[in-house]
Design brief:
By secondary structure, this protein is an alpha+beta fold. Helices cover 36% and strands 12% of the residues. The protein has a domain of 83 residues. It contains 5 helices and 4 strands, in the order ββααααββα.
């Protein structure tokens, strides 16, 4: 788009005059990085939603097609308030049954340290690959 075009901000819905050829349609206030920090303070469950979804869909994690992701941001919000996750020091999303995917009836928020301990217990029975010795 050319400069000087009037656009509507995607976040706050205010009209503003575009000053660059960028495709992003955000006003100056919404482009401010502090906006993102404030938004995440008001929506703390959303980072857990993004991380869980990324684990299921990004090829670099190796779980694409293995873990099914069936939750919406609103369901993560419901879990956040149901489990009172704002009271936890370091909240973490946990799948109760690891053979099932991310579903509302299979997830809960618990303390991160407890989740790490549970993961270590589950993996303790598995054979570990031997590492190649360093030269």
């Amino acid at each position: 788009m050319a400069c000087g075009v009037i656009k509507e901000c995607r976040r706050c819905k205010r009209e503003f005059t575009c000053v660059s050829t960028s495709r992003k349609a955000y006003c100056g206030k919404c482009r401010n990085p502090k906006w993102k920090e404030e938004w995440h303070k008001e929506h703390p469950w959303y980072k857990h939603y993004q991380s869980a979804r990324k684990r299921c869909t990004a090829p670099r994690y190796g779980y694409v097609g293995k873990i099914i992701f069936e939750m919406t941001p609103d369901e993560f919000k419901y879990l956040w308030f149901r489990d009172k996750a704002w009271l936890l020091k370091h909240s973490s999303i946990d799948r109760i049954d690891n053979t099932k995917g991310y579903r509302l009836d299979n997830c809960r928020f618990i303390e991160w340290s407890e989740n790490a301990r549970l993961g270590a217990l589950l993996n303790s029975g598995k054979k570990r690959r031997k590492r190649c010795p360093r030269k």
